[in-house]
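Practice problem: predict the structure.
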Amino acid sequence: MAPQLSFLSAIVTIAVCLQQAVLAIPVENEKRQAAGVPPYVLSYAPKVWLQSQDPYAPSDFGAQLVHTKPEVNFNVVTGASNPLTLDNLDSLNALGGQNVYLTSIDDITKNPSWLNGVKPDGSGKTNGATSCAVVVNDHGSGNVDAFYFYFYAFNQGNTVLGQEIGDHVGDWEHNMIRFKNGVPQAIWYSQHSYGEAFTYSCVEKQGLRPVAYSAKGTHATYATTGTHDHTIPGFNLPVGPIEDHCDQGTLWDPIANAYFYSYDAASNAFKAYDGVSPTSWLQYLGRWGDQQYPDSDKRQKKIWDIDVTAKYTSGPTGPQDKSLNRADVCPPKDKTSCVVSPFLRP
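Answer:
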């Protein structure tokens, strides 16, 4: 009996060790992906409150490629890599460039399940979904911008006069924190066609980490909870005809499952801090969703035939198009000066 017991004990020990090794893989991957990232970029990384009634959670941007096909002017791109991956997505630049749209294979009016994303767990992690990309631009002389990009598979627009407007496949939002010698100075919150900037000292925080509020459906990022009217881009009010709604629904920790990159503006090149995370997708110039459906498409609706009230609009461009080498905390915009508010407002 003793030899049999020893044999069984050895089998159990091996099984436990294998289980521990498997369970450790995600943790080791997270450590590897974050290795070499400036510590302050992690210490001050934003946390995001997802709105409690929002059905569209953060999504894996690599998985988006599985559910879409590249099109130009509603025609499938010929000669595209198959399958498309984060390692070859930039190959589409030679096949249509900015005119390429990653178009849903499914009819989105049927609300396929992949549009819903992955709800963060109790620790704030989107398990099995890399839904954040952190891009660090070191300007030199201690000046560093850290971009925290958030991805959602679908944007559900606001309701105006009883109709949803601005729905689209794919949704990129971001915060950007400007550091001076490792100390956060200001933070940008992207919202629709523009956004808002605040001093780091005035924003809500959890420990050192600033808090962002993701609006229901649109995922516009705000510094405060509650209602935000954005009828006038870049000018928010607490009430109005086109409102975003935020609350403390589910707390998401974007960097718990993210890729981390440095960005060299002079060469427009990205480098993964871990040396293995995909980088080619960051050079993709096209859109991350369907092209706006024409009026002839039965899915399309407009209020009084006004184009800006279209129910379905085009998907967004990716991180490459988000002014990664901006001079101010705010991205450049015609005739708009960058205002960094020292106090919170809607």
